[in-house]
Amino acid sequence: MTDVLLTVGTRKGLFIGRRHGGSWTFGDPHFNAQAIYSIAIDTRGDEPRLLVGGDSAHWGPSVFHSDDLGATWVEPKRPAVKFPQFTEASLERVWQLHPAGPEAPGVVYAGTEPAALFRSDDRGESFELVRPLWEHPTRSKWVPGGGGEGLHTILTDRRDAGAVTVAVSTAGVFRTRDGGERWTPANKGVSAVFLPDPDPEFGQCVHKVTRDAADPDRLYLQNHWGVFRSDDSGEHWKDIGAGLPSDFGFAAAAHPHRGDTFYVFPINADADRVPAGHRCRVFRTRDAGESWEPLTQGLPDGDHYGTVLRDALCTDDADPAGVYFGNRNGEVYASADDGDSWQQLVSHLPDVLCVRAAVLG
Q1: Distance CA 300, CA 305 (A)
Q2: Which terminus of the chain is less hemmed in, N or C, by CB atoms within 10 Å?
Q3: Residue 1 reports pLDDT greater than 80
Q4: Judging by beta carbons within 10 Å of its beta carbon (0-12, 13-18, 19+), is residue 272 exposed, middle or buried?
Q5: 172-193: string of b/e by CB count within 10 Å (b at 16+)?
Q6: E strand or H helix at 133, and its extent?
């Protein structure tokens, strides 16, 4: 089997797992007592670079990087992500770290709370605020969601270095085609059942957006109530939640190679944030949301209450794909066959906030 690196960010540190052949090993935690809200594995260089957004209750938030798979870590002498003085804002946490593709060598984006986008041209060692999004005319009307006002999703486009799509709770999806100089809301068809106007231009509580492997214009979106698909890069959205036990949830992940295939983890309701039907089930579509199938082989079959957060479900680059998720019970599960069967890798970790995986070698 392919060697895989699995990184697990928790409420109290980072755990790193390695699969050699068919067996997994996990080391001691890194960043003890820090909440790890974001992880990226940048495989564009000669050696993978790990980027971690940590949050110390004493020292505050910071971004660390490692070029030796976590054996050693570097924290810049000056904060990698810092709001300029004119914003009158201070960084609460880094929600997302996203290396761009080969279309933008060296570029890494960071999404933060307060909701803002930062760009790095040195693989994540220093970042600059993308000022036009911060100064967007709708910004004064953005409001925090239950988890705060965070920019939590960043999608780049391998065809065009100037095309970037982001999602904010609770402002919705925004996109640029000119490298960040101009931003437009991209929420047509995404409902906001909690607002007086259920179909606003912006203000949706988007939980996660992911891109189809075969068709880069096809996006999938898990909303605060609603699962949606866009076939035109976010210009319009279609509800594809029929067939799921609940269309509320946080996480969404696309298959790395197969088009029309992505995964969600349904939650009972916004006021009952446990797995739908109290069952531990990942749901997969292989026809872009026209139908859904529960993936349960190897997962707990009794009552289960482990909620999967927005960045705690991911895939790797293998074929068949590895699929991974962690939950707030501190359990981490893995599938090496596109989600058809699962095994529990570890349990009793702190609250799992995010997971990221990559094939090594």
Answers
A1: 11
A2: C
A3: no
A4: exposed
A5: bbbbbbeebeebebbbebbbbe
A6: helix 131-134
Alpha-carbon distance 361 to 359, whole Å? 7
Q: Report CA-CA distances (Å) from 275 to 111, 149, 244, 251, 259.
A: 27, 24, 12, 12, 26
Give the number of C-alpha atoms closer than 13 A to the C-alpha of residue 150, restricted to the C-beta side. 19
Which of 346, 340, 263, 251 is closest to 19 using CA atoms? Answer: 346
Q: Which of 256, 277, 257 is nearest to 265 (CA)?
A: 277
Whole-model pTM?
A: 0.97
> Using CA atoms, how far apart are residues 122 and 108, in angstroms rounded to an integer?
8
Q: Which residues pair with 264 in a beta bridge?
A: 252, 283
Sign of CA dihedral 285, 289, 291, 296: positive
Q: Are 147 and 169 in contact (CB under 8 A)?
A: yes
In this structure, which amino acid lies at residue 111? G
Give CA–CA dist 81/58, Å, rounded.
Answer: 17
Query: How many of the other CB atoms lie within 10 Å of CB of 248?
Result: 23
Determine whether 159 is exposed, middle or buried from the number of CB atoms within 10 Å of its CB (0-12, 13-18, 19+). exposed
In which residue are the tokens 């026209």 written?
290
Question: Tokens for 89?
Answer: 């804002």
165: helix, strand or coil? strand
Which pair of tokens denotes residue 163? 């095309």
**Both tokens assigned to 283:** 């749901």
